[in-house]
Every structure is written in C-alpha cells, then in structure tokens.
Amino acid sequence: MKKKVVIEREWFISSKTTDINADYVISKEIGTGAYGKVFLAEDRRSLSLRAVKVIQKIRVQDYQTFVNEIEILKKLDHPNIVNIIETYENERLCFVVLEHCRGGELFDRLVKLSVFSEAQAASIMKQLLSAIMYCHNHGICHRDLKPENCLYVTEDENSELKIIDFGLSAHIKEEDLLHDLTGTPYYLAPEMMSGNYTKIVDCWSLGVILYMLLSGTPPFNGKDNNEILMSVYNGCFTFRPPGFKNVSDFAKDLICRLLTKDPSHRITAQQAYMHPWIQGCIPTPYPDLPQTLLVSLKNFMQSNTIKKASLMYIASKLTEYDIRSIRKHFKDIDVNGDGVISKLELINVVKSLTPEVTDENLKILVSNLDINDNGNIDYTEFLTGCLLRKSFSNSGYLESAFKHFDKDESGFITTTEVREVLNGQDIVHKLSTNDIDLMISEIDKNRDGCIDYREFIDMMAQRSLL
C-alpha cells in the first residue's frame, strides 16, 4: 500500500508580499469598516470575482486583531462561513482576499422585509446554528454575531448565508473563560458584562437574531448604549411586539432557550440545531449522491498525491456558483449539522446507493477522502473528491494550481517544490526524496525529472473526473 500523504487545506491559502495588482483587477468599493475598505476584485487568471478587504496598518492600534482573524479563517472550513482565498501585505497595507458574497447583509434584507416567515427564519437559523456549532467544536467563539455579519451569497431569496468578520473571535477550550467586553451592545450576552464567560455567549446572540427575524425589533432596547446594556444585563424580554402575534409556541420556546440569562442553563448550538422548531420547519432531506459524483469519488481514490493536492487547491478557490450542487449534497449527508461528514454518515449514504460495495472499499474511500487524516470528511475535502471536470475546466484555475507548485516560476515543478507544498512550508516531513521522485515519475512523460505544464494538464485530464 502506498504511503498516505496528509494534505491540509490551509497550505493553499497563500500569504504573499508581491503586488496584488499583478493577480487581481481591483474595482469599485463595496463596503467599509473601522480600519479600511472592501473592494470588488477580479482574478486575472480565473476571472472569478472576489472581495478584497484592505486594512491600513497605521489606523490599527492592535494589528494582531487582523492577524488573528486571518489565522482563524484559515482553519475554518464550513459552507456557511466565508472562505478566505489568500492574503497580500506591504509596509502600509494588508489585503485579505475573500469569496465575494453579492447578496448583501441579512440586516438589509430584514429592514426591507420587516419580518421573516417562520420557514424563512428557520432556514436562516439552521445555517447559522450549524456554522456556530462547527466553530464551537473547533474551539472558536465568534463574539460578534449580528445580522450585519451575515452575508447572502446571491440576491436570490433562498440564497445561502455566510458568517463573516472573525476579528473579535477567540480560541477557547471547553473549560476556558473569556474576559474581554467586546461586540455590539444589542447582541451581547449578560454575562459578558461581568467579565467571565464562555463560548455559549454566541448562542445568546443567535437568540437575539432569531427574535429580530420574527418580530423586526430587538428584544433589548434603550436610548443609548448604556441603556441597551442595562436592558441586556437585566435579561428581561417579552413577546408583545405585533410581529409575534402569529408566531408559533415552538419558535418562542427556542428564543426563550437561547435567551436564558443563566449561561449554564442556556441551550447549546447543537441542541438548538436539533430543536423541534428547526427540524420541523426545515425537514432534513434524505441524503443522496448522484451517480456522477459517485464516479468522481471512485476516480479520486485512484489519483496520485500531486493530483489530489492540485484538486484540493482548486476546490479551495472555486466560487459558490461552481460548487453549489456539491455543497447541497454535503449538507444533506451532514445529518447532525456539525459541519463535517463523519465516516459513518458517508458510509451509510454510499451503502444505501451502492449496496454491492464491499466494506474494504468503503474503508479505502473514507481514508482517501479524509485528506488531512483528522477522522472526518471536511467540507473542502468533500468538494475535492466530488469535483467534476467541468468545475475546473476554467484554465485559470489550472494555471493557478500549477503556479502554486512552481514556486520559482521556471515553468517546471521540481522535487524540492513538491516537498515545499506537501510539507505545508515545514522542512521536517516523513516524505523522503525517493517518495517525491516516485510521485513525479508517474506524471513525468518525458523523463526529465520534473513536471512541465503540459504534463500537469495531462495529469488533471486523465479520467480523473468526468
């Protein structure tokens, strides 16, 4: 059996010091923040649209805040959390390239509609709860959840949402306490004002959001921030706003459980996701995988390591439009909503669709898809295994993947460059030079000891994906 090479998604999120204008055409301003602006940009190779957050270092008192956000985003891999593409930096500015969500803020849509129906609100909450459950399971507390930090991917009324702005987020262990009073007054949990709190504060914020979605008004009000904070600290709210007149008791029950003042009795994101109102309004569809994706998974199993790494690079850069159908299948298979597919969840689906598959082949499939070897199938891993060739027929994606390996831009991928990519910039690795030479020899048609662009394209085009 060939040696399994662990590949991490974050290896493909580059931190560059080159000129961003060489890779992107930056155009109109689409947003603004305390420390900089957000611009629309077009990738010169793939022509994909991105959002570029431009941070002026001189305006940032604590630059570590932004370093923190970048490092957290690199580790988060969920269909409802904004995807970071790469970063650029010079002496004055930092550029964070993110996926472009063109549908606007949840806040703006709430203002436009006044209130959402229960079905609409449940759909929104199911996405947000899944994302926060994933964050909490990975030791991240967001600390600034609000409708302004939830963006729609498209203008479509049924568009998916993405949580953004992890600048105030914190790494936290299960038993850890946080102490900083940070966030937006309307959405702060009462215990944050006492200076000792846990990640469960995010669930309070989600309760405030749900209250607002169904009523059009916040549960805690005041003439100024001090009054708002006092109202929050008291933790008393009612269902008197007119918007609640026809809201079900199930929905009100979930609000009460999320807005429980005592954090030790407050419902968790996982419990809220399984609440009867969420599951009843938005029933979980029967997990399914089309035959084309099953064939893709089978072909992925037979791909060599360099190809798997290249496919993961491409999967991490594709737009939501490119992957929309695969994303739906991922979410359907992720029955418990924790943002990953467990080995059992995947095995159950594949077995139900192809009863003839052997247990041994199922083990091999799961092992191949678990590219980072963490015991689950992460979102980008699933995308990588299911990619159809049409998803990356755009030559810009292929060219970018090749250039990610070709560090010195010589037009050839060498053993040293493969080692650098597969090491995740770490010099120490279990891979020997012979291991990498063998990988290259499988692709190196002209036997010159390296991979040129033609050989790279041939590798990607081999009956790898339909």
Automatic annotation (TrEMBL):
It catalyses: L-threonyl-[protein] + ATP = O-phospho-L-threonyl-[protein] + ADP + H(+); L-seryl-[protein] + ATP = O-phospho-L-seryl-[protein] + ADP + H(+). It comes from the Eukaryota. Residues 24-278 form the Protein kinase domain. Its cofactor is Mg(2+). Gene3D superfamilies: EF-hand, Phosphorylase Kinase, domain 1, Transferase(Phosphotransferase) domain 1. ATP binds at residue 53. SMART domains: EFh (SM00054), S_TKc (SM00220). Keywords: ATP-binding, Calcium, Kinase, Metal-binding, Nucleotide-binding, Repeat, Serine/threonine-protein kinase, Transferase. Pfam families: EF-hand_7, Pkinase. Its EC number is 2.7.11.1. GO terms for molecular function: ATP binding; calcium ion binding; protein serine/threonine kinase activity. InterPro entries: CDPK_Ser/Thr_kinases, EF-hand-dom_pair, EF_Hand_1_Ca_BS, EF_hand_dom, Kinase-like_dom_sf, Prot_kinase_dom, Protein_kinase_ATP_BS, Ser/Thr_kinase_AS. Residues 321-356, 357-392, 393-428, 431-466 form the EF-hand domain. Belongs to the protein kinase superfamily. Ser/Thr protein kinase family. CDPK subfamily. Monomer. This is non-specific serine/threonine protein kinase. The lineage of its organism: Eukaryota, Sar, Alveolata, Ciliophora, Postciliodesmatophora.
